[in-house]
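Our preliminary data section would be incomplete without showing what the modeling component actually yields. Below, a chain of 485 amino acids is followed by its predicted structure, encoded as tokens that our downstream tools consume directly.
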Amino acid sequence: MKININYLNKTISKTSTNLVLFSNDKFRINNTKKLISDFEYSYINDLLKVNDLKKNLFVFELNSKRKIVLISIKNNLKSSDIENLGAEFYGRINNGKNEKYILNSDSIFAKNENFLSYFLHGMKLKSYEFKKYKTKKENKNISIDIYGNKNKPSLKNQLKFKALEEGTFYARDLVSEPGNVLHPDEYAKRLKLLTKDGLKINIYDKKKLKKLGMNALLGVGMGSVRGSYLVTMEWNGLKNNSKPLAFVGKGVTFDTGGYSLKPARFMEDMTYDMAGSAAVVGLMRSLALRKAKINAVGVVGLVENMVSGVAQRPGDIVKSYSGKTIEVLNTDAEGRLVLADALSFTEKKFKPKFIIDLATLTGAIIVCLGSEYAGLFSNNDDLSKKIINAGEKVEEKLWRMPLHKNYDKLMNSKNADMQNINYVGGAGSTTAAQFLQRFILNKTPWAHLDIAGMAFSKYGGALNSSGATGFGVRLLNQLIEENYE
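Predicted structure:
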């Protein structure tokens, strides 16, 4: 369902269409008296006396053509609380019908001057649906007309939140696409189109990757008839040579597990094994759309992990871009192979201020943290604190997990510099991160976000319906906005 937001300059009558009003935490509505009729005021007041005022909002259906939605503004609301309130409001009015509401901004008395921006942002994030392949099209719209002289979002805020929504939705769209549509060839084509947003795009195909020596990444895609790619997206918002912020994403568009074949019930969701790359793409698009005052680069490795007569075998040894050799004992531990080459390449080519990678890397992180936190692994305490703080503010939460040299022995190989899995067992997410850390060659501050439990939700969350979440886009935008712009 599409949400249309309009800003009115004309006055409204007390008998106009559906109305959205705000009150204090006790649902006292004295400040709304001039906006509604005496009858409506008395009727609502009487109903409030017999209702549970712990709720956030009430919907009063006065007749078949008029509703009044009353929303309580609690004390000391954080920005994420306001977004959740907007999402809750959307959930209450989303009845599959075309509807129009007038929202009176003068009734907002919150201390947060950006209250309405966050409220509308939460609404829009919650409204996302992926129905591209439904043959029965629904053209339902909800119109929100903003009326009042106070609390209106500034033009700057409108543009900022729109960019963030478009970046998040773009990431969700990518993750939602089926594997037969969004294979690496198609993915690379779509990224090329982002030049229209102001991003500089470079696409490295199989021939170029082979010349660069990216055999770890190429090995994963050997079994597919599709191409394998590394794509870089550059945003130069400072117009100078300052070190960029770097973001790297795993883009396995479909993961069968290769010859280490996944069980069927675990394979059907593997269209979202490219969610790390989608978050990077969504972030970079958002930065470009809002003309962020930073230099940033996004790097994604795009492959399809399939089974065929030429697919990579368990026991194969490959030489990575870094020069280090890897014994591939399990072809289903493929994401770390893609990231290994992407990380070393990013560090060497762009010499960034920091590198943050995102990947649906391990099922072990879901066993550990479920779908409430993503796992954070890092070689830098300051960067870790900044990421965690940013995550708390947008409710994309992270929990820092351990890295330690003692885990290295679990990844050492008798036949190569390292192996791609820990056969001893245990610490699956940590040993995967420990493996990745070996490809940060020059002590660049680095963080790895294992988002396997956060990229896709079967039951929906506060700001998303079931399906792709776009986890990472808002988190990293908050990190940048708060610390680097």
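The mean pLDDT is 94. The domain at 2-153 is CATH 3.40.220.10 (Leucine Aminopeptidase, subunit E; domain 1). Preliminary results of this kind motivate Aim 1 of the renewal.
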